[in-house]
Amino acid sequence: MMVPSGRDDPLLPPRLPAPRLRPLQCRLDCKITSVIIIILVLGFGGLTLLMITRERALLMQQGRQNADLITASVARSIQNIMVQGRGDIAGQLVEDLKAIPDLERVQIFRLDGRQAFRDLETMRVVASHLQQDPASYAILRDLEEGIRHSRARPNPEGAPIDLARLRLAVQAQRDVSYREQLNGREVITYLKPMANEDRCQWCHGADHQIRGVVAISTSLEGMNAEIRRSTREMLGIAFGIIVLVALALTTILRRIVVKPIGETVSGIREIAAGNLDKVVKTRASNDEIGDLVESLNGMARCLRASQEILLRSEKLSSLGRLASGVAHEINNPLASVAGYSEDLLDRIKGLERVEGEGLALLRSHLQMIHQQAYRCRDITRNLLDFARKEEFRLSEVLLPALLDQTVRLVEYQARLQQKAITVTYAPDLPPITTDAAQLQQVFLNILNNALDAIEGKGEVRVGARTEGDQVVVEVADTGCGIPPEHLDKIFDPFFTTKPPGKGTGLGLAISYRIVESLGGEIRVQSQVGAGSTFWILLPRQPRVPLGPEPA
User: Fold this and answer.
1) What does the pLDDT profile of the chain (551 residues) look like in tens digits?
2) Numbered ranges of CATH 3.30.565.10 in the chain
3) CATH T-level topology, domain 391-551
């Protein structure tokens, strides 16, 4: 039969639930670290994105500046070359510029969108204005022949220009840049109008302000590779910083927040379990955790003081009940003693010699006086036993031997009343350290109550076994049982259901105090008409002071 838990027992306070292990996501340091990591990721992510955007803009600006320098140089060089009448050199200049890394296209366009220096029209115009000799025209013929041969070869640089943007550059007379795909590669194209300066107007005429557009396309692959490299570096640095910050925060939080809070929670659990002497210790700090610990220790001190006040109040209340019970219990035997003694005095006055029936009556009255006087002695002795806290004398005790000795004390009386006592012990019952005399008084009180509860024939079963780190002694009877409304009162001093004169009501109260002082507890289960079962739970090593306690 299993011992009922203290939660089901109305005589014991409810037990606190065991602390449960919290999953990782419920830990305070993980929550705080997660929030900070999210903030860091968002912050570094935004900062990285901003830096990448700024770097892209700087690279684009640098590329635009380089393109501006190239286009300005090309435009100025072409102007000088054209003024000198050397258009052939202009074409060669354009070809030489293509050797510059990342420069995908260098082209010069007329206002109508046709590429310049791809035929001899410009040279003829220049030659006619310069009135060159026939030798110059021979040069033109050679160039024309070379151009015809070059047209027969593939010309990837001859990709068409965006005419809409070309017209925009001409009409607005400003630089225009845009991205496009050229030969399967992403490039950025810059269009720079060439102004029709005074020295150019004698050849090109003065009817227009722009005489052509220089188009330069630079590859974005190098810039994109640089941006990708910078992005990887920034992301790596950001990730490393986030990891280091997370580790540092986790370590710091566990040291200065989580560990002190955990110690505080453990102290709260011990205090809630009834250990009001617990003092929560933590590193000296002037923060909220230090204030919490100090408040908790102050609360424990207040609870201890309140408990002492309650104990004193309960003791005064018990003393009041004791005084009332003592007055009631002693009054009856003292009245009997007074009555019989007065009767004897009256008889002795009228008799010089007592014999026969008078002698028998005198003997009967004296026996009654003797019994009632001893009853008063027993009442006062039990009262003193209840009020006095004796020094415990601890020793190693074998429960089977102690229980057998106690059973022998009541076995003769049980046989006379036709009541059987059966004893069963577990084979692996270990010895316990306890006070044998005090514990035997407990067993004797409970056995006597069990025998008194049986009307007529019946049985009392005594057993002992181990449960965990405790030893359980079980005493069960087949008596009349205890009504439910009396279960929470049976350990009160002077409470008894026995007829007047057959019990003082102190036996179970004394037993409960002894077992509690030895670090154990008593549990009871009863059913009216079926009997009662008492369990005495004792620790193998007592949790009691080794000296006398103050009364």
Assistant:
1) 455 554 444 333 344 444 444 443 456 667 777 888 888 888 888 888 888 888 888 877 887 777 777 777 777 776 666 666 555 565 566 666 666 767 777 777 887 777 776 655 555 555 555 444 444 445 445 544 544 444 443 344 455 778 888 888 888 888 888 888 887 788 888 888 887 776 665 566 666 778 788 888 888 888 888 888 888 888 888 888 888 888 888 888 778 777 777 777 787 888 777 677 777 776 656 677 777 778 878 888 887 787 677 666 655 655 665 565 666 667 667 777 777 777 776 666 655 555 556 667 776 777 777 777 766 766 666 666 555 555 668 889 999 999 998 898 888 788 888 899 999 999 888 999 988 888 988 998 899 889 988 888 899 999 999 998 899 999 999 988 888 888 887 887 766 766 655 555 677 888 888 888 888 999 999 988 889 999 999 998 875 444 444 33
2) 391-551
3) Heat Shock Protein 90 (3.30.565)
CA distance 149 to 354: 174
Query: What's the CA gap between 490 and 6, in Å, rounded?
Result: 17
Q: For residue 392, what are the CA distances in angstroms to 435, 466, 493, 508, 548?
A: 6, 23, 22, 19, 7
Please provide the DSSP assignment of 492-546 as one string.
Answer: STT---SPTTS--S-HHHHHHHHHHHTT-EEEEEEETTTEEEEEEEEESS----S
Three-state SS string across 444-475, please? HHHHHHHHHHCCCCEEEEEEEEEECCEEEEEE
Bridge partner list, 97: none
For residue 207 the two structure tokens come to: 């009817």
Where in the chain is CATH 3.30.450.290?
Answer: 28-227
Tokens 């009654």, residue located: 368
H/E stretch holding 181: strand 176-182
CATH topology for 28-227 is: Beta-Lactamase (3.30.450)
